[in-house]
Write a structure and sequence with these properties.
By secondary structure, this protein is an all-beta fold. Helices cover 0% and strands 16% of the residues. Strands 2-1-3 form a 3-stranded antiparallel β-sheet, with no helix packed on it. The protein is globular and about 25 Å long. The mean pLDDT is 97.
Length: 51
């Protein structure tokens, strides 16, 4: 999983981001470069890996 360092949103690959057009089981590394946090709009580069 990966966590937004701006707002704390956690991207879970098992859930994907249906509203953002990201299918379930999509690893964070496979998200498009222009994908952004669905909560605060932070860029993909503002996320950090978490256990």
């Amino acid at each position: 999983m990966s966590k937004c360092t701006v707002c704390g949103y956690e991207y879970n690959p098992a859930n994907g981001d249906p509203e953002g057009g990201i299918e379930k089981d999509t690893p964070f590394e496979k998200l498009p470069d222009d994908w952004s946090c669905p909560v605060c709009g932070a860029s993909k580069h503002e996320f950090e890996a978490i256990d």
